Amino acid sequence: MHGTPFFLPENNFYVPDRNRYNLYRPIIATVLQKQIRASIISLLILSCNREAINMIASKTFKFSILLPLLLILSFLPIPKPANAETELIVFAAASMTESMNMITDVYKRSAPDVKILFNFDSSGTLKTQIEQGADCDIFISAGQKQMDQIDISADPSVNTKKLDLIMPATRFNIVSNKVVLIIPKNGDPDSIRGFQDIITEKVSLISIGNSDVPAGQYAGEVLKNLGIWDKLTATNKISYASNVKEVLSQVSTGAVDCGIVYSTDAATSEAVKVIAEAPKGSHRPIIYPAALIKGTKNEKTASEFVKFLKGPESAGIFKNVGFSIPRQDK
Question: Of the ranges 28-37, 51-60, 303-312, which is most confident?
């Protein structure tokens, strides 16, 4: 038997390292004894338990038959418990943030199992997201144009892509709004008294929404109908914002001298003052349409929430923040 060799440089050959072998011999013997004992026990078990082996083989065969069924069942939807929460996704114009959150708090009392998830942004952005396939159950726009662009029953000159994303017979007008001119709360109300002052030296910068934002579209209509749009653009006095909330922020922080927003947005901020309301006839009526989106997985829940939005409790909240309730003729 040869142990681990070691090298003797002066003789230039190998000899067994007997001291090292003697050191590890007890350990090696113990390991071998354990292995032999385990092997003997395994043989005894196998020889005495043929019935057990047959049983295992039989169960394995049965499992192989059940396996495809289990795989099929794994792909079937698991039914929700009776008290499971239903999530309702609502895309709403940014100017509805405060009122919709208040309405949801009230609605939760009568529908505790419904969780409403809001996406507040400009109506143009929300429309684009829906068009691109974003999950949405209810869409509330601050302008008819954005709703028309995805409604197959709307004017083809507006719905140029022939999009059919609105569930039939669910569209209605939920609220109406007004356009107002605001300044920072600490601003001098005598310096800017109305829309005509915007083109004077009293104003260096005014904030309005982008052209794809309903608030910006209405502001543009007002300024054009008052004959001051061209002068503002020629002197680079306009600061464009991505939505009406951004306009409100620019004015409240004093980043601009004034801004044009909805009356409801002005009412939510203590950091701005309303100087004037847009003259009658200077813009189209500001009507907010709402509708269910085709393909919603929660049509019943969405319809129940819409019914609540049309009810007296919601109407009271809308009026308290400055909205008006239009006639339900559509």
Answer: 303-312
Convert the pLDDT of each residue in 63-113 to its tens digit: 555 555 555 555 555 555 555 689 999 999 999 999 999 999 999 999 999
Structural domain total, the chain = 3
Please report where in the chains the tokens 């500001």 appear, as a residue: 286
Q: Residue 259: give the domain boundaries.
A: 179-277
Residues 42 and 55 in one domain: yes
Ordered DSSP codes for 239-254: EEESSHHHHHHHHHTT
Q: Is residue 327 part of a domain?
A: no
Q: Which of 314, 328, 320, 281 is nearest to 92 (CA)?
A: 314
Q: Which CATH number belongs to the domain containing residue 239 in this structure?
A: 3.40.190.10
Amino acid of residue 300: K
Establish how many alpha carbons lie within 13 A of residue 204's alpha carbon, considering only the half-sphere containing its beta carbon: 5
Structural contact between residues 267 and 322, judged by C-beta atoms closer than 8 angstroms: yes
16, 29: one domain:
yes
